Amino acid sequence: MKTKMQNLVVTVLVFTAAVQVEAQGYIVPNGVTYLGFGGLGGYETHVLQNPTNGNYTGFLLSRQSQTTFLFGAFLDEGVRVFQVSPNDPVSLQPILANSYTELTYPNSYVFANGSTFYLGFYTGNTYPQNGIYSDPLFGWAEYVNNNGVVQMLNSALEYGGGGIFAGTENIIGVPEPSVFSLLGLGALFFGLHRRRLAVSNRSGGRSPYTPPALGDSRPNAFLG
User: Fold this and answer.
1) 117 and 182 fall within a common domain
2) pTM
3) Which of 94, 181, 197, 213 could be joined to 16 by an S-S link, Cβ 3.0–4.6 Å?
4) What is the pLDDT of residue 20?
């Protein structure tokens, strides 16, 4: 019986893992917008931080030379900005692992003249706790430096998923337990309960066998 129950447990766990589904999220229309050279003294990018009400945050790249730019972020919930490469996963795991260089104020960064570069975005509609947003959006933008003039070529922003691959609209899914996996766990607990009942019925609800006391003339059996 013990072996059968072990097999049941393994079967349910494998079944549960196999039927997990992923929350895919969606691409936010106009999630990243480029304003060009604005009144704040730099090349300005807006990143949507709340798809429901259209609230946005943003950052600036202010020219210091033909290839050097000062980074500055809006003084609100903010957006964390990272130097990434095409197909890099812009998601929480590599961000927490410090896999990418993060742009921070008041530091300057070099973007080669005539070359494209990618920036990854991580933001949300509430202030981050220890750098982590509770309801995050992940995105990216492709830029080019044309003789000291920054231009945005392409971008994408996702919401509801686990991130996005830079340079694409491929969203990283978030694993979630499906209804079938919950049913599988229910079957496991039901099986365990049935086993306890079977053991109890075989023993008649009495205590296991104990040797008769010294001087007891009754047959060796369960002592009632």
Assistant:
1) no
2) 0.71
3) 181
4) 46
